[in-house]
Design a protein that fits this description.
The protein is of the alpha/beta class. Helices cover 36% and strands 17% of the residues. A hairpin with a 2-residue loop joins strand 4 and strand 5. The radius of gyration is 23 Å and the shape is globular.
Length: 284
């Protein structure tokens, strides 16, 4: 008599053990190295192998910058009324609803106030997942309100850009936001309140042509695409081959368009030192 018996399974086949790894690994888009997703998240979504900076969400930006991930959000209720009843492949109203369901916010920007390195500050972070982080009337209104709040409270403003530019579904109203925001920023400059602009991949179109490039300090993440028109459009217009790396942050730094390129893992520390410099100088 056998002491042990093999367990019988249907059709006489033994069930194979399976290890579930779906969604736990991710591959670097630059060097193709595969990592545990959790390890990449702990490294602030920067590839440990080559330093490639993955795109991250606006909420992650706020958590990354504010002390102890504590902050107060503003104007979450604002949403676009679809002023022109715009329809392309899809009705704009439906697109907005889909984006809200996907991102959890009503438009392409988050605005918050908290402390960074102990300093009171306002941070505005664009959300690229929401129609490419495009700037419509709501984005323009929310940013303008935060500029005005920065002016009212006399605390620094930081805008983290990630955008394809102005939102054409809102036509001329989206273009008007460029002047609207910059007019508010001019008043901030006159009051001597610091404005730090952080440009991430991508920062293009009307966002680059307005507020993203007028900071007291313009800094960018490594490898970020920054420009107005796309490289293909420019090549077709001037009928010349563009230099290698054209419109990447390293190229712009070499040609005086940026003040610094800062690794995301060092970004908060860099901003804290900048705030200390600005605010100490202001007291004098």
């Amino acid at each position: 008599m056998a002491f042990f018996r093999r367990k019988k399974f249907k059709n006489g086949l033994r069930e194979k053990k399976r290890v579930v790894t779906d969604g736990q690994f991710t591959k670097c888009e630059n060097c193709n190295t595969t990592f545990w997703k959790k390890d990449l998240e702990e490294n602030l979504m920067v590839c440990p192998q080559c330093g490639y900076h993955f795109k991250i969400y606006s909420l992650d930006r706020l958590k990354m910058l504010f002390d102890d991930e504590k902050f107060e959000e503003f104007d979450e209720h604002l949403y676009s009324p679809d002023p022109f009843n715009f329809v392309d492949k899809k009705a704009y109203k439906d697109r907005l609803k889909d984006m809200e369901a996907k991102t959890g916010i009503k438009d392409a920007v988050r605005c918050a106030k908290g402390k960074i390195g102990g300093y009171d500050a306002i941070v505005v972070a664009l959300e690229y997942r929401f129609i490419g982080g495009s700037m419509g009337s709501v984005v323009g209104e929310k940013i303008t309100r935060m500029v005005e709040k920065s002016l009212e409270l006399k605390i620094p403003l930081i805008i983290v850009s990630a955008s394809g530019g102005a939102r054409m579904m809102e036509g001329v109203l989206s273009l008007m936001q460029m002047a609207k925001i910059n007019s508010a920023l001019a008043r901030l400059d006159e009051a001597g309140i610091p404005f730090i602009s952080v440009l991430t991949d991508p920062t293009t179109g009307g966002v680059t042509a307005s507020f993203a490039m007028v900071g007291d300090l313009n800094i960018a993440e490594p490898g970020a695409l920054i420009g107005f028109a796309g490289p293909r459009v420019i090549e077709q217009t001037i009928r010349q081959k563009l230099p290698e790396g054209f419109q990447r942050s390293e190229f712009l730094l070499r040609h005086g368009m940026l003040d610094a390129i800062v690794d995301r893992r060092n970004l908060k520390e860099y901003i804290v030192r900048a705030l200390k410099f600005f605010l100490t100088d202001a007291k004098k």
